Amino acid sequence: MKIGIVCYPTYGGSGVMATELGMALAKKGHEVHFVTSHQPVRLEFLGSNLFFHEVFVEEYPLFHYQPYELALSSKLVEVVEKYELDILHVHYAIPHAYAAYMAKKMLGQKGVDIPIVTTLHGTDITLVGSHPFYKTAVEFSINNSDVVTAVSESLRTDTLRLFTIYNKISVIYNFIDFEYQKNWEDDDCLRISLARDDEKVITHVSNFRPVKRIDDVISVFNEIQKKVKSKLLMVGDGPEREKAENYARELGIKDKVLFLGKSDEVRKILCLSDLFILPSETESFGLAALEAMAARTPVISTNTGGLPEVNLQGRTGFLSDVGDTEDMIKNALYLLEDEVKLDEFKDNAYEFAHRFSIEKILPKYEAVYREVLFDCC
Ligand code: GMT
User: CB within 6 Å of ligand 1 — which residues?
Assistant: First the structure.
């Protein structure tokens, strides 16, 4: 199949998922075309069946905001026609599903019928999409996609609760490519440079937005380090980083909290981690938690959104109510102070992560593509 993929090319989980999906589809022999504002960060190879088309937005003094959707829909029309694509798969509804719908309409006038698959990722529904400024357009885009998928049952339920949806929404979970994961095992682990052998390593990875409740990560670690020799690795960047750095300084633990910034080597960091903390306010899936589990790291998370579908209470980690740092501290120490338990949870996390292996998930997307092509065109 010839598949066009639209996503945010930066460090968010939706962009990571879309990129890895595209690369995996290309490896299976499909022709994949990324249509994005920059080359996606995890896009590692471009070959004879994997292409990247950049969407340019011209600066013009009259524009207060650059009309990205317009440029994207025009580019989609161009790429679909030139490469005779069979299908467009857009990740994150805003504004991608809307731009794809416009492209479909423009192509329709030229006699080209292109099906649109929209994958909902989370904040495009829960935080941003349902805002009155965007709701009508997001609802319209979802209802006018040929197929809609959501990355968890929880997100599907949220979508049906927040919008009036006539379309069916299928759940296809996010996935992990264990082959890629293997590249970073053992020798590549960065432990020597980041933590001593007698220190436990606690990790948090996110885009440091308010929804991630970064202060809770620091508060939980502050209590952990009083009882267990440990380091906290903070991976990523975003608006809450400075506040978090100040908080760690105020608590007098700045030498034990390493802010590593955005990294292309998350797996290299995760492979030396003993515990992962994700205290988010809301999380449709929690790809960061799954990546941690795939690197044998148990997860201390909240029980919000899709997290209970990924992190199993008392098996792969523990889940607490949003903001209940006392419970998170208790659960973290329960694991960190008992080497045998910790090892058991590490094994469980790794084993359960295999339920989300790319080998299990990729065929589900291929089936969706085949179904929509058969139905639609
Ligand atoms: O809001 C973010 O954290 C970014 C967003 C994205 O665009 O990647 O993340 C959402 O999609 C991820 C991939 O499907 C999910 O793993 C995240 O849970 C989801 N974030 C939220 O729901 C807050």
Answer: 8, 12-14, 17, 92, 121-123, 126, 151, 174, 207, 211, 282-287
Distance, CA 16 to ligand 1 centroid (Å)? 10
Burial of 321 (0-12, 13-18, 19+ CB in 10 A): exposed
Residue 81, token pair as written in the block: 């026609």
Helices within 41-113 (DSSP H only): 68-83, 93-109
E strand spans, 114-250: 116-120, 147-150, 169-171, 200-205, 230-235
What are the tens digits of pLDDT across the range 198-248? Answer: 899 999 999 999 999 999 999 999 999 999 999 999 999 999 999 999 999
- Based on the domain organization, do 186 and 281 belong to the same domain? yes
Co-location of 267 and 366 in the same domain: no
Distance, first Cα to last Cα, the chain: 13
Domain that holds residue 77: 2-175+357-376
Select from 121, 152, 304 the residue to mutate for testing ligand 1; criterion: most ligand atoms less than 8 Å from CB.
121
Pocket test of ligand 1: the residue of 16, 156, 158, 287 to mutate, having most ligand atoms within 8 Å of its CB, is 287
- Residue 317, phi then psi, degrees to nearest 5: 165, -155
The pLDDT of residue 256 is above 80: yes
Mean pLDDT of 289-318: 97
DSSP code string of 162-178: HS---S-EEE----B-H
263 and 188: one domain?
A: yes
320 and 244 in a common domain: yes
Beta bridge partners of 176: 357
How many independent structural domains does the chain possess?
A: 2
| 58 Rama class: left (phi>0) / alpha (psi -120 to 50) / beta | beta
Question: 338 alpha carbon to ligand 1 midpoint, in Å?
Answer: 32
CA distance 304 to 317: 14
